[in-house]
């Protein structure tokens, strides 16, 4: 029997349904047109970003879950210090109260205060925070007992608010905008305050103490705008010196502070010339006297107009690393010679949306500014590597050889940074994630309105 015959001899029901699908129904030999039916319009463009790729790894269940204040109710300046994990404990906020949690069990150990600012730091068995009126206080980290609360508020007017608490061995520094407060760390007594008036409140969170000198940076605006490095006497807060165009210290050694000059290179008509340079100045830490200048030079490839071609520079293990357009150059900082070529260079990720962050586990780490993804280059052989997930990234943190990737689909992946292979997955149920913390063998995941305690597998510890 032919295919046509088979079609003709189909059961009546099938033929009727086929006619309905075609929009025409035959009744006793007559063709009856069905009522018109509305259909959705075809899109002018339809794009799907989901690849369907799902990573299959063992799922770890949280050992404990605890409630915590939502980041939506907090201040952006406090993002990195709303929760800390140290010495087997987690310090967080619940109902604007500071709480301490046992990181292994999730048991609440103590609760302190009310209407507190969501900012906490830990140092040598003490936690430091701010009252609602921004008065610093200190608590015994084990018991929650108050050691002191300052009578001085750090709340002042600032055009660009930057807030931070920086504890050292004998001083608690509080930063608010361009003003620095120095408190006796044992008593909370205010020793001094210092402000950079030219910054008009625009200070950074950078503060470093060395050999009786306190260094800070500011954004100074006016006819010329750039970063500025200031030095203060640790005992009195007196300003010792300030240098316009200088950034935070690359290194402090033998009474000298080495700092990148971020302003002078900008005077070059960089679009018309391929010549590029990074200048590092050395100043006497106490007096600010210029003691030396180092200039690292290179040329941009291609034809004009040229791009700026410099993104970032940092020190690691006695070596200076400079991002020079699409490559990173490594220099021996201790054996500087004018005009010397770099010890070696590394090709970075393709494109111009990646910025160099640091060196971790002997790998240059870049971040794609479009996707947030991390890419790496091995220092040993220049091989490019990546750490992929199965959903858009929300937060990435690295501890040792463990990379913890919180994703926008409510999961967190634990990845072996050295092999790039995923090891485990945790369901967080959240889109937003704060920094993933670690103390001992416990991982603390910040999800929306809650904390999750997860034991880290031995392979990542």
UniProtKB/TrEMBL annotation:
Xref: Pfam families: PQQ_2
Database matches in SMART domains: PQQ
Superkingdom of the organism of origin: Bacteria
The Pyrrolo-quinoline quinone repeat domain, residue ranges: 63-204
Matching PANTHER family: CELL SURFACE PROTEIN, OUTER MEMBRANE PROTEIN ASSEMBLY FACTOR BAMB
Protein's UniProt name: PQQ-binding-like beta-propeller repeat protein
Protein's organism: Paenibacillus thailandensis
């Amino acid at each position: 029997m032919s295919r046509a015959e088979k079609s003709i001899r189909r059961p009546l029901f099938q033929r009727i349904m086929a006619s309905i699908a075609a929009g025409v129904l035959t009744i006793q030999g007559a063709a009856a047109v069905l009522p018109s039916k509305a259909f959705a319009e075809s899109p002018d463009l339809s794009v799907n970003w989901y690849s369907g790729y799902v990573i299959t790894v063992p799922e770890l269940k949280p050992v404990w879950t605890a409630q915590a204040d939502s980041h939506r109710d907090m201040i952006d300046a406090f993002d990195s210090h709303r929760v800390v994990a140290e010495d087997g404990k987690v310090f967080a906020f619940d109902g604007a109260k500071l709480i301490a949690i046992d990181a292994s069990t999730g048991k609440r150990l103590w609760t302190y205060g009310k209407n507190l600012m969501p900012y906490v730091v830990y140092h040598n068995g003490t936690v430091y925070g701010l009252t609602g009126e921004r008065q610093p206080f200190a608590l015994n980290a084990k018991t929650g007992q108050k050691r002191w609360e300052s009578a001085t508020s750090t709340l002042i007017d600032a055009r660009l608010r930057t807030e931070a608490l920086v504890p050292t061995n004998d001083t608690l520094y509080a930063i608010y905008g361009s003003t620095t407060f120095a408190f006796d760390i044992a008593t909370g007594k205010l020793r001094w305050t210092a402000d950079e008036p030219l910054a008009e409140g625009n200070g950074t969170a950078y503060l470093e103490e060395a050999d009786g000198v306190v260094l800070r940076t500011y954004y100074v605006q006016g006819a010329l705008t750039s970063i500025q490095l200031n030095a203060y006497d640790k005992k009195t807060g007196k300003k010792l010196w300030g240098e316009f165009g200088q950034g935070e210290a690359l290194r402090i050694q033998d009474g000298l502070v080495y700092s990148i000059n971020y302003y002078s290179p900008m005077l070059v008509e960089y679009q018309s010339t391929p010549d590029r340079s990074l200048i590092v100045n050395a100043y006497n830490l106490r007096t600010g006297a210029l003691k030396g200048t180092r200039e690292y030079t290179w040329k941009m490839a291609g034809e004009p107009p040229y791009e700026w071609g410099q993104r970032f520079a940092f020190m690691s293990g006695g070596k200076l690393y400079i991002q020079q357009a699409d490559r990173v150059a490594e220099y021996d900082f201790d054996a500087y010679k004018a005009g010397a070529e770099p010890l070696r260079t590394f090709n970075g990720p393709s494109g111009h949306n990646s910025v160099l962050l640091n060196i971790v586990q002997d790998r240059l780490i870049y971040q794609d500014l479009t996707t947030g993804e991390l890419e790496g280059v091995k220092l040993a052989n220049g091989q490019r590597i990546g750490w992929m997930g199965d959903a858009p990234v929300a937060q990435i943190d690295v501890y040792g050889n463990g990379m913890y990737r919180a994703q926008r689909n409510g999961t967190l992946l634990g990845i072996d940074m050295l092999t790039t292979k995923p090891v485990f997955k945790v369901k967080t149920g959240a889109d937003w994630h704060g920094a993933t913390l670690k103390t001992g063998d416990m991982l603390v995941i910040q999800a929306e309105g809650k904390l999750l305690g997860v034991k880290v597998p031995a392979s990542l510890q």
